[in-house]
Amino acid sequence: MIFDLILIGLVITLEPIPLTAFILVLASKGGVRKGAGFIFGWLLSLAVVVALTILVTGNKPPKPSTAPSLAAIAIKIAIGVALLLIALRQWRKMGKPKKPKKTPKWQTGIDNMSPWYAMGLAPLTQPWGLVAAGVATIVEAKLSSWQDYIALFLFCIVATAVYLALEIYAAFRPEKTQSFLATARAWIDSHTDQVIVVISLVLGFWLIGKSIYTLVS
Prior knowledge:
Blueprint (H helix, E strand, L loop, with lengths): L1 H13 L1 H12 L3 H27 L9 H27 L11 H4 L6 H11 L2 H12 L6 H13 L2 H12 L1 H43 L1
């Protein structure tokens, strides 16, 4: 369970689209406070999903070869297949001119955004399909020791790691924050397709392979 959750958490924190949204928030006027609000909303939404999953399952993972167990495996396979299709779609888009996109309404007033708004924005940008893979992993796990609960905590922290690192950098190096964030955003904008292809392939093949292994073993 631990490796699965850490891998899923890494993919979540490296997902370029929500990361770009956070960089825009952090680069805006009063960005450190807004970034803290965004991170709080991001972590809170993850924690709520994890807690609800444990509450609903009663910390009793489904027995092997039962309908709930097969359903959890099927969900992970479906997510894996979807990730491979996303990787294929992004690969085909690489090198092609991109159509201009309309600026979202929340970006037009980003300098006047409150930390509370930023906190509410975070769950809206959360890659819930990837979070669902984490939920399916938690459903199959039996939390019987403090190490298991630490694994859930690490999942939330790893899934927020890049955001936390950028927030800390902005708080302690404010004089260099704008140029650094501009460079980071430019890199993400020019490598979005490549990043999505790599992380989608890695997690997609892992979810499918691990699920098939579980079925046949």
